[in-house]
Design goal:
7 helices, single chain, globular, binds zinc ion, L-fuculose-1-phosphate Aldolase, about 40% helix, alpha+beta
């Protein structure tokens, strides 16, 4: 079996986040979980993604204790740890500061399911977590609550969280969220957007998970 280099994968994801314009400067952070060992690979605090080396990656156990690495981990460490504790289906977390989605985070407003791809990729409305200071345990707890069982949530006045079974899924979720947020703003500007029903959302999510594509 080919072993996965999680550190390398994390550095590549950092570059990709920058290239996709999903954040500004050094804000935003990424983690990957190795389901076999339970270890969490997290980006360090306040370092530019394009300068990171594999030795800069912080390796944590499932409780958030550092087991490898000399760098200070991202201030949102507990956000990652609590999500992994709560969601066994999640093995990658992408925290971004994207413009269109953050508009709703500033309004403390959820983004309802307004497009089919949102139902398929995210699985439900994207709720906004109650405000808490960055890096606080309360922010981590609020985020877990807002996330629930879907693939994304907003942080009040802050940014977005996207989760997936791998980092590829996180980027897909991030793109769908950002596009949906932009479409929703335009729809709100000229009329009253119609939300997709929960029944139809659930059907599409199930289809996307279990029946879509080439098996
Ligand atoms: Zn942030």
């Amino acid at each position: 079996m080919k072993t996965i280099n999680y550190k390398k994968m994390l550095l590549q994801a950092g570059i990709e986040m920058q290239e996709r314009d999903l954040t500004v400067e050094t804000w935003g952070n990424i983690s990957l979980k190795d389901p076999a060992t339970g270890l969490i690979y997290l980006t360090p605090s306040g370092m530019a993604n394009d300068t990171l080396q594999e030795s800069d990656v912080c390796v944590l156990n499932g409780h958030g204790e550092i087991v490898e690495g000399t760098r200070k981990p991202s201030v949102e460490k507990m956000l990652h740890v609590l999500i992994y504790q709560e969601r066994s289906d999640v093995s990658a977390i992408l925290h971004t500061h994207p413009i269109q989605s953050t508009v709703f985070g500033i309004l403390h407003q959820e983004i309802p399911v307004i497009a089919d791809e949102m139902a398929q990729a995210i699985g439900g409305p994207v709720h906004c977590a109650e405000y808490a200071l960055p890096g606080s345990i309360v922010l981590a707890q609020n985020a877990v609550q807002a996330l629930g069982k879907v693939q994304a949530c907003l942080l009040a006045n802050h940014g977005a969280i996207c989760v997936g079974h791998d980092i590829k899924e996180c980027f897909k979720v991030a793109e769908v969220l950002e596009t949906s947020a932009e479409i929703y703003q335009k729809a709100l500007a000229i009329g009253r957007p119609i939300e997709i029903t929960k029944e139809n959302t659930d059907w599409m999510r199930d289809f996307a998970l279990n029946h879509y594509g080439q098996k």
